[in-house]
# Entry
Amino acid sequence: MEFIFVYVTCKDRAEALNVGKAVVEARLAACANIINGMDSIYWWNGELQVEKEAILIMKSRRDLFAELTEKVKSVHSYEVPCVVALPIEQGNQDYLNWLMAETKGTG
# Structure
């Protein structure tokens, strides 16, 4: 089984909490962490933007990524939310077993 970190940016802590709860309640991630108060600098519609955002990091499985992404998009306020996966190369096996047990079954 391949495990992943899913990185999502949100307009604020409240949105990150809402998105994280929706994903974890659907068992598409075992855990969600919020880091509030990030400064983001990016281009949008041809203009440079500087905004405060919140980071949402979720622990999940590669086979759930497509469904997780659709769940995020269904509750996120951004037209094009950042939803990217990073591989978990190694981890505490007890934690990875817990992650597997707390996410949806396959099939």
User: Anything to note?
Assistant: Strands lie at 3-10, 31-44, 47-61, 83-87. The mean pLDDT is 96. The CA atoms of residues 8 and 64 lie 15 Å apart. The first strand starts at residue 3 and ends at 10.
